[in-house]
Amino acid sequence: MPIEFLCTECPKKLRVPDDSAGKKVKCPGCGHVQRIPTPEVAPEEPPLPPPEPVTTRPLAAEEPNPFAENTANPYQSPSASASTSSDYRAPTGGGMTEQTAKVLLTVPVAIILVAQAVNLLLSVLLTGFAIFMLVSPPNPADAADQAVVWISLASACGIGSILSIAAIGFLITVLFRKSYTMAWVGVLLGMIPCGAISNCPTLLLAILGFTAGIWAIVLLCLPEGKAQFR
C-alpha cells in the first residue's frame, strides 16, 4: 500500500511506494528534501473467545412438565375444546326471529283495522242520518238553514267513509305481506285522527288507532319488519 503524506514546506500531497519508508524524497512542488515517514500500523485486535456450549439438564421421571397439555397447573389457560363445550356460552346472533316480528306487526295492524271498521260503520250511519234529515227536515220552515248543516255533516262523514275504506283495503294487504309501500300507506291512513274524531262519539278510538299506528311504524322501520315483504 503506497505511503501518502504532506510536504512540510508546502501543502502538496506526496505519494511514494510502501518500501520507501525512511528514505529521502524531493517535493516536486517546492523542491524541499525531506525524509519519508514510516506509516503507523494499527494493532490487531485479539480474536474473540469461542462461545461456551449450553448444557441442558433432562427432566427427571418424577418431575412434571409445566408445558404439557394434560397437567394440573392451575394457571394454565383453558383449551379450545373446554370453552366450546361449556354450558354458559354467550348466545350467538341477535335481534328477533322472523315469527316474532310477524306477530308484533300483525297485532297493531289488526287493531288499526278494527278501529277503521268501526269508523266506517259510524260514518255510514251518520251519512245516512244526514241524508234522511236533508230529505225530510223536521221543521220545513227552517229547511234552508238546516240544509247547510246536514250537507256539511254528510260531506264530512262521506270523506271519513272513503278514508276508512282505503285504509281497510291497504291494511288487509299488510296482513298478507304483499307490498312494503302499501303497508306504509295503510298504516298512515289508519292513523288519521280526523276520521275517528268526526265519526266516533268518543276520543278513545282515535287514541287507540294512533298508538297502534306508532307501534306498526316502528316495526316497519326495523330490518326484521322489512324482511317480511321480500
UniProtKB/TrEMBL annotation:
<feature type="compositionally biased region" description="Low complexity">
    <location>
        <begin position="77"/>
        <end position="86"/>
    </location>
</feature>
<feature type="region of interest" description="Disordered">
    <location>
        <begin position="34"/>
        <end position="94"/>
    </location>
</feature>
<keyword id="KW-0472">Membrane</keyword>
<feature type="transmembrane region" description="Helical">
    <location>
        <begin position="147"/>
        <end position="172"/>
    </location>
</feature>
<feature type="compositionally biased region" description="Pro residues">
    <location>
        <begin position="44"/>
        <end position="53"/>
    </location>
</feature>
<keyword id="KW-0812">Transmembrane</keyword>
<protein>
    <recommendedName>
        <fullName>Zinc finger/thioredoxin putative domain-containing protein</fullName>
    </recommendedName>
</protein>
<keyword id="KW-1133">Transmembrane helix</keyword>
<feature type="transmembrane region" description="Helical">
    <location>
        <begin position="204"/>
        <end position="222"/>
    </location>
</feature>
<feature type="transmembrane region" description="Helical">
    <location>
        <begin position="103"/>
        <end position="135"/>
    </location>
</feature>
<feature type="transmembrane region" description="Helical">
    <location>
        <begin position="179"/>
        <end position="198"/>
    </location>
</feature>
